[in-house]
Amino acid sequence: MRHIAIIGSGPAGYYTAEAAQKLWGDEVRVDIFDMLPVPYGLIRTGVAPDHQSIKGVSNRYESTNALDNVRFVGNVMIGEDISVAELQGLYDAVVLATGAPNDRPAGIAGEGLENVFGSAAFVGWYNGHPQFAKLNPDLSGRHAVVIGNGNVALDVARILTKTSGEFTGSDIVGHALHALAKSGIEHVTILGRRGPHQIAMTPKELGELGHLERAAPRVDPADLPDEADDAFLEPGQRKSVTHLRSFAGIPEAFRAEKPVEIEFDFFASPKAILGEGRVSGVEVERTRLDANGRADGTGESYVVPASLVVTCIGYKSSPIPGVPFEESAGRFANVDGRILPGLYCVGWARRGPSGTIGTNRPDGFSVVERIAEDIGLGSAKQGRAGFDTLAAERKLDVVTFRDWKKIEEAEVGRARDGAPREKFVDVDEMIRARKD
Asked: What are the tens digits of pLDDT across the range 320-363?
């Protein structure tokens, strides 16, 4: 029998569990640990609340958890309730699938000012992550600046500019919906250091900005390269740039009917966030691309007004004591998923924050292949029986998948009209719902 512990119940964790079950069938026992009482990681608290079709992938993970040899172990903090070393003593393999839950610092002056947030925190706020539910951003000002040129920046800009009615069918949490309904934001600037051909925005997400009820996107035609150069782009990137070209061609008469504007400011490198205690603007330097596509400063600077700033410039994993970590890359030090004997990593914890949700599936299957090479038929380790004994000794309040289904049922039952659920945003509330 093989015993595997997976730390993290997001996509990378569940795809790894699926791979282990497919390879070994009844000859493996997999325990999936999570610090929260609820599973699915970024599917629950990272994917935009108005992208319910993407969240539907959790149905696949539920099917994996329905197997007798795969178990969800929620409300267990690795490093506090039990150490990685202790898990290694109980399981043949321990896989870190913790993702990259922390914001990468912007590294510019003023990022500590009031009403400046990283995207992990801001997205966690409107998605109901318990760690960020009390963030309470001030949306009363007129100008928001979103730093970054990826899909997360698009999500933040879209969420900031939607009407309450446009959230019908979403699972945005009530406190965020209420705050957004009272928002005074009239202008959102999306800052990108490079140009339209270098964006990391996918066509579907970018195209959504052209169909908002009260907001219209703006692109300066002067920022667009020659249209003939689009032929050198990958098909998806070409479609995205086509959207930007269409935004540049929106008639001013149409814009006049929209009270909110989403402006793409390309070739714009933020140099400092300005303000006395609270943010009031962002100092930006105009850039140009060198022969290698890098953004060089031109020396020309200007200030973009900002009452709210959200930085969407990347994420990093959380270090774990005793586990080698690459601080510069924001991930665990590894070679093809191997960290140390018996210790592995997968997904963003292995690669850094890159790729889509689906990228984690082949990643999970590849790390299981390496585990198979290393552990063979397994050992005489205790696995879940040993953990259960330790959990009882330490009086850990472990949440099972059956408990989670009770929490989920309670969330569905308290949903507002037109919403799939109203998430609990407090761990104690989750625990109480499990016991009701």
From this structure: 988 999 998 899 999 999 999 999 999 999 998 888 888 899 99
Instruction: Please check whether residue 241 is in contact with residue 223, taking contact to mean a CB–CB distance below 8 angstroms.
Output: no
Beta strands in 306-361 (DSSP E): 308-311, 315-316, 325-326, 331-332, 338-340, 343-345
CA separation, residue 19 to residues 13, 361, 364 (Å): 10, 8, 7
DSSP 217: E
Helical spans, DSSP H, in 8-106: 11-24, 42-45, 52-55, 58-65, 84-90
pTM of this structure: 0.95
CB 31 within 8 Å of CB 71: yes
**CA neighbours closer than 13 Å in the CB half-sphere of residue 7:** 30
The span from the CA of 192 to the CA of 431, in Å, is: 42
Closest CA to 60 of 374, 269, 357: 357
| Short-list 195, 219, 190, 151, CA closest to 295 | 195
How does pLDDT run across 104-156, given as a tens digit for each residue?
Answer: 888 999 999 999 999 999 999 999 999 999 999 999 999 999 999 999 999 99
What span, in angstroms and rounded, lies between the C-alpha atoms of 135 and 126? 9
Which residues neighbour 383 within 8 Å (Cβ) at sequence distance 6 or greater? 1, 3, 29, 31, 90, 91, 92
- Go through the domains of the chain in sequence order and give each one's CATH number: 2-101+316-399 (3.40.50.720), 105-311 (3.50.50.60)
Produce one character per residue of 265-292: b if its CB has 16 or more CB atoms within 10 Å, e if not. Answer: bbbbbbebbbbeeebbbbbbbbbebeee
Dist. CA 136–CA 144, nearest whole Å: 15
Cα separation of the two ends of the chain:
36
